[in-house]
Structures are given as structure tokens and as C-alpha cells.
Amino acid sequence: MDDRVSTLLPEHTGYKSLEVSVIPDATIRDLLLMRAGILGAHGDRGKQESFTVMANPNWEPVDTLRLLSKPARAPGIYQYSPIANSYLLGLVAEEMGDNDLLSLYRTKLVNPLNIKIGLLPVTETPPTLAKAYAERSNYGGPQGFGDITKIETYTSYGLDYHQADGRLSWAGAGIISTPTNIARWVYELMSPNGSAVSSAITTTLTESFADEWIVMTESRQKYGFHVTLTEHYLSDGRMILSYGHPGGGSGFASSILYVPSLDIGISIIANTEINYQTGSCEPSTEGSGPKLKYGLNPMSCIAIGFLETLIADN
Description:
- By secondary structure, the protein is an alpha+beta fold.
- It has 2 domains: 5-113; 178-313, no CATH class.
- It is built from 13 helices and 10 strands.
- A 6-stranded antiparallel sheet has the order 5-6-7-8-9-10.
């Protein structure tokens, strides 16, 4: 956990080619906690440098890391930068596991559970994969909400949008699967009755949260080893805790939750960026703390709806 990336990737030519002022020599612990000091951010917003990476048929993960440009700061302060942190962890996993990331995911984690996943851009885009809907102008298209997989910026070059976008997501957000598989995964990973990993690893995950409240997708959470601890306040004033992670962007929104008090896994997936919409189901204050500036987003409200229904049924 406290080994540095340079120690684990001493012969990795791609890693050694990265700019050290932008990509700090962080520890695995810092990367997992999003506290490695990486400030850089990039997106698939129609910018030429990003598009060049997205369109590259010979893409390698370090090509995406080279898009980062902001000088890093000293590690220790939370800064959510999923692509950079997760990509570096992915490089370490491949190097130490002597296999590609998708094969490691499958053989070490999900195949024994009979869970089926793909990983973009390594996996060919399934014909049944949901189309991605968002404000098209955010992705190099015309104004208006619509199917961003049909934006001319991609289609005129003969690009599969999901494959192109996968080059900016990979270890950060490239997994493709079904809600059933993802709900099963979060249960098997986080439940004391799960079998994805040893009980010691599950305990490590559930005890990894830094003692600091942060806001992700307008929900108050604590961040651990690439997992969040979230407080859900129900309409009757009760508070329910969950482990999981929100997600959104590139025409999708997602939320996975494991609820310890109910011993259940929940997966919510939408093929629109609903988590970026305004609105809230929050009736008053967020527990004893201040009310969130914008209120809970729709995905958080949907999660609360699930929880209230499950509690009522039990």
C-alpha cells in the first residue's frame, strides 16, 4: 500500500515517459484515496488533443495520461481525478499481475462469481450496448439533447463513439455490464456474506474512509479506496449508510450501493446524464450538517426511493 509507483514500474517505458511534474510518484494508498496530488483533468469535450487520443487505433493507456497538464501538488489533499489515479493503478496491476487489466478483472475477481463484464476500449462494443444521451454540444456536436454516439465529429471519421470514449475511461470508468451483474458485484465485494475477496480485504475497504466529508454528485460522502461511504436521509428522518460509488458522464449515469443494514446490493444505471440535472428530493437539512448547495441530484433521489421501498417491504 505504501510502495510508490516508480518502485512498482521501474522498467515500464510508458510510465517513464510521463512528465514527473504532472504525474507525481505517489503511493498506492494515495492513488486509491484520490490524494496523490494529481490536479490534471481532461475530457471528451471535442478538444483536438483529446480527440486525437480517442481516434488512435494504436492507443495505449499512457497516451491518455499524457493529456494531463496541470502541475501536481504534494499528496494528501483530496482531489477527485479518476482517470489519472485509476490509470496509474491499472498500469501497476498489469505490471505486477503480468496480464492485461480485463483478464485480471475476469480471472481474479468476476469469473468465479459468474459475472460477465467487458472493458472499453479493449472489448469490442456489444451491439446491445445502450446508446448514450447528453447535451451534444458538450461532446463536439450541435446544441441540443440527443444521441451522442451519432455526432458527426465521430461518425465522419468512422469512429465507434463507445470505443473512442473508452480510451478516455479504461481503468477509470470503462467497465460495461448489466445492472444485475453490477448489483451482484457490489454485494459480493462489500457484504460479510460475499465471496469476491477475502473478509480481510472487505474489512480493509470498509475501514479505508478518510475522516473528511466531501461532495460527489451533490451528495455528502466520505471517500475511501475507490469506494464511498454515503449517508442517505429518508423522508421520515432516518439515516441509512451505504458503501458504493456514483458515476456519470459520456452520456451515462450510475450509482452502486451496498447497504449493510439491509445486506443488499443495488445498481442504478441510466443512459443519460441524469445525475447532472438540477432538482432535489431533499426535504430539509442533510442530517445535522448544512443543506447541500444544490440539493440531492436525481440519481441520489432514486436511490432513496429504492431504500424507502425496501425498508417498507421489510
